[in-house]
Specification:
The chain has 174 residues and is mostly helical. The chain contains 7 helices and 2 strands, in the order H-E-H-E-H-H-H-H-H. It has a two-stranded antiparallel sheet with strand order 1-2. The longest helix has 21 residues. InterPro entries: Puta_zinc/iron-chelating_dom.
Length: 174
């Protein structure tokens, strides 16, 4: 049974809207747990530059601005402002409580950590997936199969509780 939520408090200089402290401290959409990259608009780059932060057109995940919490929350990109994962949406609508939201986040983080032990880095995970797809059934090693099963379990959990991309949402500008 998971213990109390492991999420740090939000930065002191950020407005505290209901449930957003959990959002700002989760980081799954910032650390490649959900999205592989974030496209920035010209307005995003200008806003970040106005805050003294140089920004490229695309930020590869994990986001360099994520350090246990968002370090540019006040000037974060529009896609970050727009995105609401399924868990945060359910919490905001009162469908789940903070304890359930924290449990989902803790479970996702634990699944990701377990996966990272076998496949450190997003590139290794994508490479495994591509090798698995390309290999003939007899060539798929048991170890790779176990790692692939963990990757699939993680992705299914993320899709169920956090990710809207399967329904057309992404972190790219519209």
């Amino acid at each position: 049974m998971p213990g109390p939520p492991r999420h740090p408090p939000p930065p002191d200089d950020c407005e505290a809207a209901p449930a957003t402290d959990i959002c700002r401290s989760c980081g799954l959409c910032c650390n490649a747990g959900i999205f592989p990259y974030l496209d920035l608009t010209a307005a995003d780059r200008d806003r970040l530059a106005g805050g003294g932060v140089p920004a490229p057109e695309r930020i590869a995940q994990p986001c360099g601005f994520w350090q246990g919490q968002c370090t540019v929350y006040a000037v974060r990109p529009a896609a970050c402002r727009r995105f609401e994962c399924d868990t945060l949406g359910a919490l905001t609508r009162g469908e789940i409580d903070r304890q359930e939201a924290s449990r989902r986040i803790d479970t996702a983080i634990a699944l990701r950590a377990k996966l990272a032990e076998k496949l450190p880095g997003e590139a290794a995970q994508r490479d495994l997936l591509n090798r698995w797809i390309d290999a003939a059934p007899g060539e798929r090693a048991a170890e790779a199969g176990n790692a692939f099963a963990e990757l699939l379990a993680y992705q299914l959990y993320i899709d169920r509780h956090f990710h809207r991309a399967a329904r057309g949402e992404s972190l790219s500008p519209r």
